[in-house]
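Appendix B. Extra example for self-study. Work through it before the problem class; the solution is given directly after the inputs so you can check yourself.
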Amino acid sequence: MSTQSQQGLAFTRRGFLGLAGTAGAASVLAACTTGGGGGSGGTLKFWNMPWGNPEFNKLDKQITLDYKPKSGLPKASYQVVQWANFTQTFSSAVASKTGPAVSSGGGTQAFLFESQGAIAYADDLLDSWKKNGLYDDFLPGLIDTMKVDKGYAAVPYNLDMRVLWYNKSLLDQAGATPPTDWQSFLDACEALKKIGVYGYGTAAGAGAYTGSHILVSWMIGNGGGLFDEDHQPNCVTPENIEAINFVLECVSKGYVDPASGTYTSANAQDQWKAKKFGMGFDTGGLANNVGGDIKNDLLVGTPLKSPKGTQGMLFFPNNIMMYTNTPSQKGSEAFLTYYYQNMAPLWTKNTGIGLPPLKSITETKEFQADANNVKIIQEWQPIARTWAAPGGNSLFLGVTAVDGTPIMDTFAQSVLGGKTDAKSALQQLQDGIKSALNK
Amino acid sequence: MSAASVGDGLRRARRGMAPAGVGPRGGRRPRGRFGGRKATLVAFALPSLVLVVLLNLYPVIYAAFQTVHNGTLISSGDFVGIRNFVDVLTAVSFWRAAGFTLVFTIVGVFGSWIVGLGLAMLLRTRIPAGGLFKVLLLLPWIVPVVVSATSWNWLVATPQSPFPVLAQALGLGNVLFLADPLLAQVTVCVFKVWISFPFMMMMMSSALASVDTNVYEAARVDGANGRQIFFGITLPLISRSTYISWILMTIFCVNDFPTIFLLTGGGPVNATTSLVVLSYRTAFAQYQTGPAAAIAAIMTVTLVIVSVVLYRQIRKVNIE
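Solution. Structure tokens for the complete assembly:
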């Protein structure tokens, strides 16, 4: 070995030791750093979800970056958070104080974080909106769904509706008319069955929660629901038993696809495409999601009247929340005011987002051009209720025990599988919710 | 060479040491230089150690902390002692999930091992385009599980899917592969075997390649038939690799989340909910990190025990 190389080796060894030490120290320091959350760095972090097609986030980002704050208030940055594992993404970010100052997210996310003291209440913001007209622009009853004991946990952003859809061609082929009440629904299902088509299309498999949403919707439509006025589970009621018995009747008569309990949303859409679903319940965006030739055949039905004459359907007022971890609360509120005043293109440019919360957007000619959406706003939104029904309409932490939880999956799969009776299934649901709330 | 030096050489050989006088000139290294080498070795290991501590040890310690607290996703909660373990171990859902995990693991380990070993033995024989077959057979292991699960879902989910259509054509009626609880369990287990057998095939192929062919020739000369050769020679000689593959596959199966979650989500009516799926749903759907961490802890301890038992088998094989 040459002298030079020996020196090189000695140098490398020391250098390596130094480098290793530095790397270790840097790692430790990095681990100990609190990080630049929504509350540091002078920029307000806005995290939004992919609510529509790829154009949605492009346009949404543009709206965000066009925000010109008043002097002294922070600018806004934009980040898309994918739906995959979004709960973990938000939870870890909020816990480590690296999260956003303002975000959308899951429909019950605000109530979960509110209970942990991570949410900045929107009361002052809403007061300011009473002065500039924004407050009165919200569809009736929407803002109140966000009210918790200490204030407003969030602001309604887009409406995720559950509605009755039917395939007009298949109904015509079966000689049936669009149903208006429970009995005419059974009649239409029977007619569809004769041509080998299911009348109660739904999905309750991996990641598909529509099946359980619709079961709760039958209960709400019959004057029932899951929670009482004190936010306690009250599932085993005559209204709920009657509603679930009605669904079990549909199952036993073969109106429900027996594999529904394991269908993903994609499987259900395949069934609509394959003309195996002639009627069913899904989100307000079903026709667009199914696409193709079938799209034009898919029409939104009328809310069904129960034997008592009542109507109701579960809906999800997705929302935007502000966090206590912000560089400036005034900055968060100023940004949200700007955002709500300028977000109309997200709907008028057909980015695929759920239905708008503002009347002014529903009145635009672009929105009015979609007859299905107009019908949802006119007929379904007024009768739509939240998880809190029948006790109330304001959401609360307890609904996290039923929103997309294993308890609800089991309930939906049991009922749609037809291997239970209404009272047992509801009792099991009641026990499961109680147990979850007590932990 | 004297008798003493021969004995010394044998002792050195058994201890894996070179003969005296063959090492570096100058005999033993100076103490200072040895110390320098040690420092270098430590320095080389340090970055990895730091990463291991930060990325693995901290989460493990925090998970252990969560097992005795009633926290949520963003708060650590109050100390509750062993209540989470008591709650978990007295829950019907835990034992149902444990039962399915056991079945899933047994079928996953031995199903994939049988298929993998069979194919490894088949591929030892000279067949046309054997290399191509090997590559094709590795595909289930190579393809991302999301793609595999989506493909399997397409194959079995709806009555119009290929497998239900085939079953109907065969006169088996309307077979609901994912909607019937028992069939869903069978489907998930078969799916696991399908994505795992290439790993077993690779392990067994390398184990079979290490067996001296002279042993087989000698056995045949002694009149042993194929069955006797397989059970009397092949299996014992590859037992070490077999135990290692069983340990690894047991760990893979018990910890397998995507295979089940992507195909059935744990349904119908929890029929395919394994412990890892239960833990995930408890933490991220019910926001109860304490019981979720307790389930994970129980799984870890069980896996360690199973691994130790199997590892002892390996040592036993080595000694024999």
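Self-check: Residues 31-67 of chain B form the longest helix (37 residues). If your reasoning did not lead you there, revisit section 3.
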